[in-house]
Amino acid sequence: MTDRRKSTNRRSGEERRLHERLQAGPEIRLLRSGENGHEREPLNAVLYDVSLDGIRILLDLPLSIGEALLIQVHHSAEHLFNSTVKVMWQELTVLGQYTTGCEMCVCLTPKQLRTLKSYLDRNPGPVARAHHQLP
């Protein structure tokens, strides 16, 4: 199940990334809008990586392309940031989880990015162990 739709602000090839991408690993809570019959129960996921204008997450359930979500990024009791994102693409991994690319509706502020970098410097570790493992 691969559905990649190109955003108007993405580049191709080597120039695809506009902003530095940080590997992450904290927990993330997704709040769905409740539109299209989706339940309003929060979903839990792992933040795989993040840049100023996008995130990649790993979760157990599929999301709808184009779906808007409120994300709450945290680790244990430490709150890192909230943001609104739009689902741009999704891939099913060999382990039955979904790698999902989301575009930020509003780019992270420099302060939010510093908070996240500071957290990652203090808490290094494995990132989304199951991501794209090959058989």
Characteristic key phrases:
single chain, 7 strands, 10% helix, Thrombin, subunit H
Could you characterize what this model shows?
The protein has a six-stranded antiparallel β-barrel with strand order 2-3-4-7-6-5. Residues 9-17 and 125-135 have low confidence and may be disordered. The two termini are 18 Å apart. It has one domain (18-122): Thrombin, subunit H, CATH 2.40.10.220. A hairpin with a 2-residue loop joins β5 (68-75) and β6 (78-92). Helix content is 10%, strand content 39%. It is mainly beta and 135 residues long.
List the helices and strands and how they pair.
Elements lengths: L21 E2 L3 E6 L10 E9 L2 E6 L8 E8 L2 E15 L5 E7 L5 H13 L13
Antiparallel strand pairs: 1-3, 2-3, 2-5, 3-4, 4-7, 5-6, 6-7
Overall CATH class: Mainly Beta
- Would you list the SSEs in sequence order as H and E? EEEEEEEH
CATH topology: Thrombin, subunit H
- Residue stretches low in confidence (pLDDT < 50, at least 5 long) are 9-17, 125-135
User: What is the residue-mean pLDDT, rounded to a whole number?
Assistant: 73
Radius of gyration: 14 Å
In terms of structural class, how would the helical and strand content be classed?
Answer: mainly beta
Shape: globular
Helix % is under 10%
Query: Largest sheet, described in full?
Result: 6 strands, antiparallel, barrel
For CATH, the homologous superfamily is named as: predicted glycosyltransferase like domains
Percent in strands? 35-45%
* Alpha plus pi helix count: 1
